[in-house]
Design goal:
- By secondary structure, the protein is mainly beta.
- 0% of the residues lie in helices and 48% in strands.
- The radius of gyration is 13 Å and the shape is globular.
- The termini are far apart.
């Protein structure tokens, strides 16, 4: 059973927007560093964005800078990924993952949500 649950995926046209959400009923996300990853079948998984426990630090892959925004809502135990100016190459399955400070690997993962961007 996945520890995290993603929602908000769907199909949009190029230039459109989607907002993904990551929630957990078993983990208190404010205790963890949370990241969004994406993966196209047959390709390697790619890190999209990362947010620190208090939300004060964020980091993005170069191709997402200025288009995507990661944020956390600790009162709701969720982490969001706002995606604007979507491109067809953003089509992928998007996963959220959480890890403790100091860990290299992410211990907790969701099952993913599909994002499809058409021309």
């Amino acid at each position: 059973q996945a520890q995290l649950v993603e929602s908000g995926g769907g199909s949009v046209q190029a230039g459109g927007s989607l907002r993904l959400s990551c929630a957990s009923s078993t983990r208190t996300l404010r205790y963890y560093i949370v990241s969004w990853f994406r993966q196209v079948p047959g390709q390697e998984r790619e890190l999209v964005a990362t947010i620190s426990r208090d939300g004060g630090l964020t980091r993005y892959a170069d191709s997402m800078k200025g288009r995507f925004t990661i944020s956390r809502h600790n009162g709701k135990n969720t982490v969001s990924l706002q995606m604007n100016a979507l491109r067809p190459e953003d089509t992928a399955i998007y996963y959220c993952a959480a890890k403790e400070v100091g860990d290299v690997d992410y211990q907790y993962w969701g099952q993913g949500t599909q994002v499809s961007v058409g021309l």
